[in-house]
Every structure is written in structure tokens, then in C-alpha cells.
Amino acid sequence: MKKILKLKCVKCGAEYLENEVEYVCPQCGIEGILDVIYDYELISRELTKDYLLNNEDKNITRYLPILPIESAEYFEPLQVGNTPLYEVKKLRRLLELDNLYIKDDTRNPTLSFKDRASAVGIAKAKELKKDVIVASSTGNAASSISGFAASAGIKNYIFVPKTAPEAKVTQLLVFGSTVFLVDGTYDEAFELCFKAAERFGWYNRSCAINPYLVEGKKTVAFEILEQLNFKVPDYVVMAVGDGCSISGAYKGFVEFYKLGLVDKIPKMIGVQSEKSNPVTRAFNKNTYEFDYIPPTTIADSISVGIPRNGIKALKAVAESGGFMIDVTDEEIIESIRILASNSGIFGEPAGVTGFAGVRKLKKLGLFKKEDIVVTVVTGSGLKDLRTAQRAVPKAYRVSTNIDDLVELLKNI
Ligand SMILES: *Cc1c(COP(=O)(O)O)cnc(C)c1O
Ligand SMILES: [Zn+2]
């Protein structure tokens, strides 16, 4: 029984069998990203509510019937997903949103949402017996695949812009990757990695061209629906860089709908920094063309000039009845502090960009008090300390003398 029917080009609609193509649509080239189409009729017979309720697997393999991997044995033991969905009372009061939920995806093996994709990427590499995997990334996709490759013992080359935060580069090095700090932007690192992968026949982990990676990202939607007891949120708000994360999540919601497990799909709202907002601009102009403006946002994980999965992201947002919105870098920085100090969840700048969007949308009056709003914190604040430090006051210096402390406390 084959669960995957075909791979379908998002641009021209051409269809291929799984083993006919490796990455993108040969007719459309790099823009012809392929979408994995399953036999939902077949899958719906296995993947029922009962199946889920009785499933004790708490790792990403929980969703194996609807992942593009034949057997659970290809997955690494690293714990991916099953991250908490919090009801944070303080935040609900502060934002006047009675049904706000925070999905804490900082709690993945390498501390970001990207681990959902990497888990599937590595499993696919093993299934296809690839012995070298490569990635280009603003940082998290790289550190993520690097950790999984370490677990699997697969050789890997990583291309990141030389400006990538130190913590992410350090993760790469401790995981044992061969790291290239590219003297250029993420967009240029992507190009170099792409060319190198072609020339040397390496397996490319990029979510933007490898059809299987977003399949891991969709599991966030499955978890949210299970955690809400199959009640569908009104809105799901997520940061957008390349656009793989939001389109992956959207696919998950659509699939549970297709399987008859839920009766509607949430509105997907994508959030970008106004200093890196090609997807918002395209959405507002109602076009699939992305014009290039050099990205300058401090939120490095979404500092993307050419969104590699922009069309899918635009489709996810539009088809769900949602929209795109921008926040400022100042709003992102402030959101690091507001989220952390009210919930104990410490996100990196891109990690809290969805939350910054929620705050803005509430202020603009676009959410009703009772709306069910979910946002995903996509990366840990420990990955970029410098930006977080800009959001908070300095610590107090104090001598070892208790009397000095007493004096100091009078002024605090
Ligand atoms: C990659 C990333 C995003 C955005 O995902 P895209 O697929 O590029 O849109 C958001 N937050 C964090 C922390 C990320 O690493
Ligand atoms: Zn095509």
C-alpha cells in the first residue's frame, strides 16, 4: 500500500511520481516546488481519532501514516515535537485575549521549530541511502540538520551567512559539521549551497526545494489540534521568512480536515518584520512576484530577501482566509521581554515575531476577546543573546556587603 500518490508542482500543476524527480519541477525550475500528495482515503482508514487517542508514541513518528517515510526505523531517537501548548493567564489578561495559546517550539532538540523538518529530512536521507547532506540557512535550519546528522552519523556541509549569530554557529561546530561562513547574505549562501549540491551530488536539506521537509513542519498543526481536543483555532499566527513554516503548518490543518478529524481550517496569519517583508508586500499587491529589497531586520531567522517558499506561504494565508502583517523590529525586541517576563518562555527575535503580530493585531482591533488564537514560538532566545540584551535593563552590581545591598534596594 502506497500512501503517497504523487508530487505536484505548486507553480504549473504538473504531477510526478515519487522516484521521477528528486527536488523541484523540471519544467519550472527552482520556483516549481513540489507538494507531496497522499492517498487521504487510504490514510483516513488508519489515522482516526481512536488511533491518535490510543497512540503512545510521543515523538514525531506518531504521525508516520501521514509522513513521507516508509518506516519509523529511519528516524533518529531525538525527541521532536510534542511541545507544550500553554494557556498563559498573565498574557491572556494583558492582551485581553481569553483564548490565547502559546505553542513552545523552543523545546526541540536543537531549540527550534526547524527540528520538525530536519527529523524528516534525515529520515529521508537515510531511506535514500544518501551519505552527504548539505544545508544553507540563516542559522536554525543549519544547526538543526547538523544535530540530526550528528545523531545519524551522516557527513554534512553547512553554508551560513557570516553574520549568523554565534550560538547557532557554535551549535554547528559542536555537532561536528563542516561549516562555511559565506561572505554574503543568506540569499547568497543559499545559491552557493545549491550550486555545490548540484555539482557534488549532495543531498540538499533546503525546505525550499526538497519536497519532504515541510512534511515535518506540518506536525505542529496536528499537535495543536490534538492538544485542543480537535477544537480548531480561529487564528494561527506565525513568523514568515522563506514561508516554509507557515505553509507547512497550513498543510497540517488541511490534512486533518481532509481526514475528517476536524470540521474547519484556522485562518493563517503570517508576520514579517517591516525590514524584511517581501511576502507581505506581495500579499498586499496580490501578486506571486517578489521584488527584492535587501533585508535588514535584527530577526536573523526571518531575514530573507527572496522568500524561497513565498508562493506556498501566500497560498496558505489566502486560502485559509488569513492575511500577512508586518511588525517593527522594536516591536519584536519588546515582545521578547513581554513574552518571557509574563510566561517564562524565552524566544529569539524571529521566535517571538508571531507573538508580536498577535499583540499588534489585538491593538488594531482585529481579534475579538473570545477568539481562539494560537501562536508558535519558533526558536529559543538563547540562540541570540545580543538582541535579547537590548530588550532588558542591566543587572545591578553589588558588593559582598549586606549593608550595600540594603542601600541599593532603597533605590530599586
Ligand atoms: C526559520 C524560522 C522561521 C521562519 O520560517 P520560514 O519557513 O523561513 O518562513 C521563524 N522562526 C524561526 C526561529 C526560524 O528559525
Ligand atoms: Zn512546474
Automatic annotation (TrEMBL):
It is an enzyme of class 4 (lyase). The modification N6-(pyridoxal phosphate)lysine is found at K114. Its cofactor is pyridoxal 5'-phosphate. Pyridoxal 5'-phosphate binds at N140, T378. Keywords: Amino-acid biosynthesis, Lyase, Pyridoxal phosphate, Threonine biosynthesis. Pathway: Amino-acid biosynthesis; L-threonine biosynthesis; L-threonine from L-aspartate: step 5/5. GO terms for biological process: isoleucine biosynthetic process; L-serine catabolic process; L-threonine catabolic process; threonine biosynthetic process. Belongs to the threonine synthase family. This is Threonine synthase. It comes from Thermobrachium celere DSM 8682.
